[in-house]
Sequence to fold (317 residues):
Amino acid sequence: VDDQKLQSLRDLINEELLAVYTTGPESLTRPIYYVLSGSGKRLRPILTLITAKTCGCSTVDSLPAALAVEVLHNFTLVHDDIMDDDHTRHGQLTVHEKWDVGTAILTGDAMLSLAMILLLHKDGYPPALMPVFTEGLLKVCEGQALDKEFENRNDVTIDEYVEMIDLKTGHLLGLSAEMGAIVAGVSTDVRQALRDYARLIGRAFQVQDDLLEIYSDSSKMGKSLHSDIILGKKTYLMIQALTEIPERITAALHTAEKDIATGLQLIRQSLDEQGIHEQALEYVESTIQHANDILAAVDVPSSDLMYFSNLITKRRN
Ligand code: IPE
Ligand code: IPE
Ligand code: MG
Ligand code: MG
Fold:
């Protein structure tokens, strides 16, 4: 895989996503088309395709599984945006803002069904696929539940946080890789190692997302930021700050409630001066290293997946 090959995989995924759901009531086809034509990075289906290829399975055969993963992911985003009260995603209005909450709930539900249909209707897919998919889906729900519970707590530990992000984000990357391995028909050992690699990549990815939420801007990210701050989300950075500099960060968060620009500046300054920004960057780096160590120990050619790890390290949006 190189950058050009990556783009051609992304183009293929984008094209196929538009064909996933074309007939049905307009109040469903329109928002689903709207979501699936959005400018997502398509990292999860790319991970499925690369993992399958690494294990000796063709792109044609792994494509339905890859599409299922991306439709599932986008379903979680539609509902997540309701839960986080976010107004922008992929540089456009979120579904519940463009239409209404009812439409967004139903759009999500239908997308989940479509993801399952993609898996059920592909001839020759091993029966092991569906349990991995549905169990992963439940993990995402559990992670989202903890994410919401933590909003109302100020004593969340880093261990609890890691458990939460492994559920809400890690398991989805894990299942993306695992499904690629399953369609390729590799041994359980290889399949589990590739899943564990991807879960760690997901962990690093989420901490990086927490960082970008504070240090990037909405135009670059294409999504509304600062809902983490407003909702009191327990991110890697916030947990460290609440432990090390509770008064200072609480004051900065209070300022942010009234004046987001000034508050954000105070938050960044506090995190920088306390070394928490640097610490989070190092955590991302070491987690990716840990993932790569697992990958290196698996008996498959690892260069394409190493390339994928590198994409995560370089991510800026
Ligand atoms: C967003 O995921 C949700 C998180 C786990 C942080 P992505 O950043 O991969 O979103 P898209 O698919 O590119 O929109
Ligand atoms: C990511 O949620 C995980 C899921 C959607 C399941 P976040 O709320 O952290 O991600 P963004 O910032 O909205 O993309
Ligand atoms: Mg969320
Ligand atoms: Mg969100």
Q: What stands out?
A: The beta strands are 88-89, 92-93.
